[in-house]
Design goal:
The chain is mainly alpha-helical. It has 2 domains: 226 residues, no CATH class; 49 residues, no CATH class. It has 9 helices and 3 strands; from the N terminus they run H-H-H-H-H-H-H-H-E-H-E-E. The chain has a 3-stranded antiparallel sheet. Helix 1 packs antiparallel against helix 5. The longest helix is centred in the N-terminal third of the chain and has 44 residues. It is elongated. The two termini are 13 Å apart. The relative contact order is 0.14. The model has no long low-confidence stretch (mean pLDDT 94). Bound molecules: zinc ion. It comes from Lacticaseibacillus saniviri JCM 17471 = DSM 24301. This is Phage Mu protein F like protein.
């Protein structure tokens, strides 16, 4: 059986893992920014005059020099070969890159997002897989009647969710670059657009760094929510197998008003227990535990 203290410690451990996942994902945005800066700054300085880059330069047809830059950007990434889900995207980016200088610069930034998304997916998927194993082991260590691997809910594949987030980022940053490229007055201003971080609530336009961090925040939220859903399903499986009839909603540290109110309605018959996250919210780390008198 599970004591309140055991559950509390487990929740705290999961929250610590959530933070570690976020840190790993955010680090990948830094790598993407380094790639973007190293490939786009030469472009900028190549074309910029004292007034920055003009609209007609942004719209200009690509030159032989531009194509060499694109090739160098591609070569840096393709060492490991493209995954099937990357192949079509790289082809599409290559076509866009041939349209104009502005589109080529956008396509190079998009390549960085492609690589970042690939790395994000590795981190997210490894985390969700290990959470599933850990919860399975924990339930079987705590309860007499063991659940089997065959009974587990299907493993979660985050590929589609993560790539959807990546595709949205690619659309956003491409649009922002083409729109804003002719508006910078110096290389420093362009560099600032790439790497500065805008504090939340600031009215400043979002930087490239902000847009990349918004992708990793979304992926961290998906991981946390899917991990909580998986935990809930494995818990309920173990409780039912061990004839638990009544359950409580054990709230996470710093619980929100919604979950606090829901928890106060307990204990619940197991079949009427709140469903996490459907009855709570995304990012919820509250959990269902067996009820004791
Ligand atoms: Zn909650």
């Amino acid at each position: 059986m599970i004591t309140d203290q055991q559950e509390q410690q487990w929740i705290e451990q999961l929250i610590a893992s959530d933070k570690a996942t976020s840190t790993k994902l955010d680090k990948q945005t830094k790598e993407a920014l380094i790639y973007i800066s190293s490939h786009l700054l030469p472009f900028y300085t190549h074309y910029a005059t004292d007034e920055g880059i003009s609209v007609s330069q942004v719209m200009q047809k690509v030159s032989k020099w531009d194509i060499q830059q694109w090739q160098a950007a591609i070569d840096e990434l393709k060492e490991d070969g493209w995954l099937p889900e990357e192949d079509a995207r790289v082809t599409a980016m290559g076509k866009l890159a041939g349209v104009s200088v502005g589109m080529m610069m956008s396509a190079i930034a998009s390549l960085a997002v492609l690589k970042m998304t690939r790395e994000n997916l590795k981190v997210a998927q490894a985390r969700i897989n290990s959470d599933r194993d850990a919860e399975f082991d924990r339930m079987n260590a705590l309860f007499d009647k063991k659940i089997t691997r065959d009974e587990l809910p299907p493993a979660i594949n985050l590929m589609n969710d993560v790539w959807l987030t990546g595709d949205r980022t690619i659309m956003t940053i491409s649009g922002e670059l083409v729109k804003r490229l002719s508006g910078f007055n110096s290389t420093e201003e362009f560099q600032d657009f790439l790497s500065s971080q805008t504090s939340s609530g600031s009215s400043r336009k979002k930087s490239m760094s902000d847009l990349l961090l918004s992708q990793t925040a979304t992926i961290a939220m998906i991981v946390r929510t899917q991990s909580a859903k998986m935990k809930f399903e494995i818990n309920m499986l173990a409780y039912r197998k061990n004839d638990v009839e009544m359950v409580d909603l054990h709230t996470e540290p710093g619980v929100c008003a919604r979950c606090a109110a829901l928890s106060a309605q307990g204990p619940f018959m197991i079949d009427a227990a709140p469903n996490i996250p459907e009855d709570t919210h995304r990012n919820c780390r509250c959990s269902i535990v067996p009820h004791f008198e």
